[in-house]
Design goal:
Length: 75
């Protein structure tokens, strides 16, 4: 979902990622079946972890999660 590790860390440090409803830190562990909610600007994306691997190719990365919902955030 987030293509650069440094950007993912920034988003997590800002409290814009939750794992199963709990605020996540950059070093948080995830497991298969966990639900992540990520706020991208004015969009809230909820995904479910489908698979975990140590290494993955860029074009295979999207197979590791399922998008459950995308919604606009009204602030």
């Amino acid at each position: 979902m987030i293509k650069r590790r440094t950007l993912a860390k920034e988003i997590a440090d800002q409290g814009r990622i939750t794992i199963n409803g709990n605020k996540a830190k950059a070093a948080s562990n995830v497991s298969v079946g966990d639900t992540l909610t990520i706020q991208f600007g004015q969009k809230l994306v909820t995904i479910e972890i489908a698979s975990l691997r140590e290494t993955v190719k860029k074009d295979e990365a999207a197979t590791l999660y399922k998008v459950k919902s995308e919604e606009a955030v009204n602030e």
